[in-house]
Amino acid sequence: MRRILVMNAKGGSGKSTLCVNIASYFAAVEHADVYLEDYDQQGSSSDWLTIRPDHYPAITGIMSWKNGKRAPKKADYAIMDAPAGVNNKDLGKIIRRAQTILIPVLPSPMDIRAAARFIQDILLIGKISRDQVKVGVVANRVREHTLIYQQLEKFLQRLDFSFVARLKDSQNYVRSAERGIGLYEMPPSTVNEDLESWEPLIKWLKSKRSLPKN
Q1: Which residues contact residue 151 at a Cβ distance below 8 angstroms, ignoring those fewer than 6 apart?
Q2: pTM score above 0.90
Q3: DSSP 209
Q4: Rounded to whole angstroms, how far apart are CA atoms 40 and 33?
Q5: What is the DSSP string of 90-149?
Q6: Is the N or the C terminus of the chain less surrounded, counting Cβ atoms within 10 Å?
Q7: pLDDT (tens digit, 9 = 90+) per residue, 104-163?
Q8: Alpha carbons 22 and 24: distance in angstroms, whole number
């Protein structure tokens, strides 16, 4: 089973949006058996699943923050939505379950500073320092050609982790979330530009570069 963890210590970075769109991609496009483990008491991923129409590919939700349950080993993918503001002890517990970590970062000075502190913290966790999990960073809700985005890109390019993708700021995330579906389940003509920005992320997730060697 492939376990993908999306996390950032700061709330509002777009973790849940990333989770549900990754989950819906693998369910709808790859026809995989996908579980969505929600470790965030805010429950945004779980709420999205409650309004997901029955005729769309099934994604099984688990309120892991509440019952501690995990996806069964027979599953193809477990997408893990981490809580914001977890302490180092809890952070280590969640990271130990992951093979791949994605960190979304927004283009704002506050988010860049928070991401720098968070990345400094997770570098001290054994599994990451021993390269037993692969970490990728995502520039989220970006408007290219703005000064703050240029600052964000410079920051992400300096990191030791893979700078995976730049996801555009788009109302299609709101429109799809309101329906309990993902971008890949919307009419292609309405989301072409958004899907183009997702291509590098999906390509990375499906490559060996996003998996630990051992």
Answers
A1: 107, 109, 112
A2: yes
A3: G
A4: 22
A5: HHHHHHTT-SEEEEEE-SSHHHHHHHHHHHHHHTTSHHHHTT-SEEEEEEEEE-TTSHHH
A6: C
A7: 999 999 999 999 988 888 887 777 767 789 999 999 999 888 999 999 999 999 888 899
A8: 6
For residue 205 the two structure tokens come to 């997730």
Nearest by Cα to 201 from 140, 126, 143, 114: 140
Low-confidence stretches of the chain (pLDDT beneath 50)? none
- Bridge partners for 79 per DSSP: 4, 36
Residues 6+ apart with CB under 8 A from 23: 34, 36, 59, 77, 79, 182
Place of tokens 């369910």: 27
Task: Report whether 49 contacts 178 (CB < 8 A).
Answer: no
| Spatial CA neighbour of 180 closest among 28, 72, 13 | 28
